[in-house]
Specification:
42% of the residues lie in helices and 14% in strands. It has 312 residues and is an alpha/beta fold. The chain has a domain of 217 residues: NAD(P)-binding Rossmann-like Domain (Rossmann fold, 3-Layer(aba) Sandwich), CATH 3.40.50.720. The strands form four sheets. It has a six-stranded parallel sheet with strand order 2-1-3-4-5-10, sandwiched between helices. A three-stranded mixed sheet has the order 11-8-13. α1 packs across α7. The protein is globular. It starts with 6 loop residues before the first strand and ends in a 5-residue tail after the last helix. The model has no long low-confidence stretch (mean pLDDT 95). Bound molecules: NADP nicotinamide-adenine-dinucleotide phosphate (NAP). NADP nicotinamide-adenine-dinucleotide phosphate binds next to α1.
Length: 312
């Protein structure tokens, strides 16, 4: 990859995509393109994807677009999550095959592709070894299909497609809509509302389940490293290597927000899987310097950038 390589980030307006664009801009890359729906580009339109790849013929493509959401959105719109996430990767692979077969593509799946029950930490070999979580089956099946599609286009057509599996992400430009957000974004919004408006703070379940949370810019660094240094059909986890309980995330947020009000727990709401931690040994073997930041540091940056909230 050179400073003038033609790089396309599909999903460049999203949390991970904008972090990838930000990292490239910081490093002085001159030819980074992020076509967006606002400008009329749509990954669900085969014609638009064909025409873009045919005209632009990128050297590198990051497919980090997707229909993405938390448990509620995933559960309510399973068919939409299945259809849209499937069509995006198929349209892009087919266009690359037909119009620009030398393009290298990095596709992001998700750790939701793993079965609902796993030995911890979750190793890449767990893919397709057991039943999926029911609440996000549409998303998980589409993401798993995307991985297999990358492997099959590589096998049959020699397309240089690699797949990475990010764990739960948070960061600048996260989705803060409480109806469709992930846990960390929802927690941040609740704390911001509690601090600004005195809204009572309530969280679901027992607070005991353990989860990872990876800062999007650290995930972006890993994606950029992988597209330059990894060339294999086998998937690679992008996790943190450590986790916290939900309660521990809330304790950190309490400290960062300097919040001294009440916090209640709605024990009638489900906890979900007790533990879900990814094995990052493979990523570390490819990228030894990978060392994602701790949650407190990432949280402070998000509060400053997205909420203009001074927590120093
Ligand atoms: N967030 C997580 O915790 C997480 C965890 C594991 C894996 N991932 C994966 O990582 C990737 C990035 O996630 P994210 O959280 O950054 O997502 P995000 O913030 O919701 O961004 C999604 C991006 O996809 C674009 N997009 C959606 N539908 C599109 C369409 N039909 N045509 C063109 N662009 C479209 C959006 O563009 P608009 O601006 O036009 O909406 C946006 O740029 C996704 O593949 C996701 O599945 C995310």
């Amino acid at each position: 990859m050179n400073k003038d390589s033609k790089i396309t980030v599909f999903g460049g307006t999203g949390m991970l995509g904008s972090a990838i664009v930000r990292q490239f801009n910081k490093k002085g890359f001159e030819n980074v393109n992020a076509p967006s729906r606002k400008e009329g580009f749509d990954l669900l339109s085969k014609e638009k994807v064909d025409s873009y790849i045919d005209v632009y013929k990128p050297d590198y493509v990051f497919l980090v677009a997707g229909l993405v959401g938390g448990i509620q959105a995933n559960n309510k719109r399973q068919a939409d999550f299945l259809y849209q996430n499937s069509m995006m990767i198929l349209n892009v692979l087919e266009a690359i095959k037909n119009y620009s077969p030398k393009t290298k593509i990095l596709y992001t799946g998700s750790t939701c592709i793993y079965p609902k029950e796993n030995p911890q930490p979750i190793n890449e070999n767990r893919f397709m070894t057991g039943p999926l979580e029911d609440t996000n089956k549409g998303y998980a099946v589409a993401k798993g299909m995307g991985i297999v599609a990358c492997q099959l286009y590589r096998m049959q057509y020699g397309i240089n497609a690699i797949s990475a599996m990010p764990t739960n992400l948070y960061g600048i430009k996260d989705n803060y809509d409480l109806e469709s957000s992930h846990f960390i974004a929802a927690m941040i919004v609740k704390f911001v509302n509690a601090k600004k408006n005195g809204t009572p703070l309530q969280f679901w379940g027992s607070g005991k389940p353990r989860r990872e949370a990876l800062y999007a810019d650290d995930c972006a660094d890993a994606c950029i490293y992988l597209i330059q240094n990894y060339d294999s059909p086998e998937i690679v986890n992008i996790g943190t290597g450590y986790d916290h309980s939900i309660k521990e995330y809330i304790d950190i947020a309490e400290r960062v927000f300097n919040y001294d009000g009440e916090i209640s727990w709605d024990a009638s709401k489900p906890d979900g899987t007790f533990e879900k931690r990814t094995d990052i040994a493979k990523l570390k073997s490819i990228m030894p310097e990978y060392n994602p930041r701790g949650f407190e540091e990432g949280l402070k940056t998000v509060l400053k950038e997205d909420f203009n909230f001074d927590v120093s």
